[in-house]
Amino acid sequence: MHIPNKKLTPFRNEIFMRLTLLRPSLCSFYKLGFSTLKPNILKLSLIVLSLTTYSNASVAQWYESQGIATIKNDDTKTAKNRAMQNALKKALLVAGASVSSVQQVVNGLLTQDEISIRASGSVNSFELVSENYTNNLVTVTIRADIFPQEKKCFAADYKKSMLLTRSNLLHREQASIGSIYQIDKTLVKQLANKIQMNGIYLDTKLALQTRTEFSRLNQTLAMEKLKSLTMSLASMTDSQYVLFSEIQDISMANDENNSWQFWQDNVYQRQFNIALYIHDGSTGERILDKQYQSSAPWQFNQRQQIDVSSQNFWLSEYGQQISQTLDSMVTDIDENMMCQPTQGRIVQVAGNNITFNLGKRHGVKVGDEFSLLHANHFVSDDHKSYSGFNVSPYKVVVNEVTNDSAKATTTEQHIMDNVQINDLAVRY
């Protein structure tokens, strides 16, 4: 902790000590605010008094996390800034703090190669622990002092199982340049790897061998069939959520990037537009719909066949642009999924005991309490299906956990005669 060089008067010493004992991060208040409050001793005393009565439930905690970013055009400063934003966002997600304020917090993190943090949002103080530069990547480790939200959702304690399906290439003819037809499969593999490395709230499964009917149903607005497809895929794979995606545009621009350099090959911009959709596996309903648009130079010869699973492709400017888009997708997915209900499908009922398909790898522990929902889907007069649930009056407490499942019993030892297989055990 840095203490000002000038001598402290006994009164100011007492204030400084009270701030230090209360919470170390509040010393920044002393450093930032003392010079402006010095003429106003009474006002300062009132502020210190209010700080000493601060609720213990809101005490900040230190969180350490790691962020990674690609270095483009030798711009290490921008890459370092992006890596720190990524790391801070992870720390905020783990702490359950407000993620919407991250951009306000991290704007201007780098000022003349020094870290400066704004006094806003949920972050009190912030420091760079280490930074490492290898193979066009910068990896940073940060430590942040964060206030958690007053009401952190219980669902944030668990990982949700999500099925990632093969992406749909809407305009297949656009892949002929470079013969990158396998981009629909490789892209989702890369997304799954990034979720595994950088995501916090997901346990992923892959279904890449065959294409789904998602795009056809989505384009024709056949939402009832789309719900059925989602619920079927979720049931077959024991997944809570299903992710679909559509590669909407990978076309080449008509204008050259470097036509004035006659001794070089022509380089053209290539689009990369993708749409992301996430559906609830138990109801089929869509809970996230987002589009991403970008472009980057296509540095390869247009007649050359490119292996989209190779390092040569992913280290190119176009591959790095796709990678950055996938990073944004991971962040958006994590933010959206953090407080989505964690729901397990009941696979066995025996008296007042149930077994459901969430386990250690999802974060379930002995002693966790779940609510029970009985599915009550219905079809309206206009032949549209709607999802409904009856909430059981009983809650269950987990008493045994395996990697993929958990056993639980009712808290009051009642016989659960109205609970059936395929009902849900839910943690909100």
Structural account:
The chain is of the alpha+beta class and 428 residues long. The chain folds into 4 domains: 10-54, no CATH class; 61-146, FlgT, N-terminal domain (Dodecin subunit-like); 154-337, ABC-type transport auxiliary lipoprotein component (Rossmann fold, 3-Layer(aba) Sandwich), CATH 3.40.50.10610; 342-427, FlgT, C-terminal domain (Thrombin, subunit H, Beta Barrel). It has 10 helices and 20 strands. The protein has helices at residues 10-22, 27-37, 41-52, 76-95, 102-106, 183-198, 214-219, 223-237, 311-314, 317-337, and strands spanning 61-70, 110-111, 114-115, 123-134, 137-146, 160-165, 168-169, 202-207, 241-249, 252-256, 268-280, 286-298, 342-350, 353-356, 369-375, 378-379, 385-386, 389-401, 406-410, 424-427. β4 and β5 form a beta hairpin. It starts with 9 loop residues before the first helix and ends with a strand. Residues 1-58, 98-121 and 259-264 have low confidence and may be disordered.
- CATH architecture label of the largest domain: 3-Layer(aba) Sandwich
Helical coverage, percent range:
25-40%
- Supply the CATH class of the largest domain: Alpha Beta
How many separate helices? Answer: 10
Q: In whole angstroms, how far apart are the ends?
A: 40 Å
Query: What does the radius of gyration come to?
Result: 26 Å
Instruction: Using the alpha-carbon principal axes, give the shape.
Output: globular
Task: Find the count of extended strands (DSSP E, 2+ residues).
Answer: 20
How many separate domains? 4
CATH-defined fold name of the largest domain = Rossmann fold
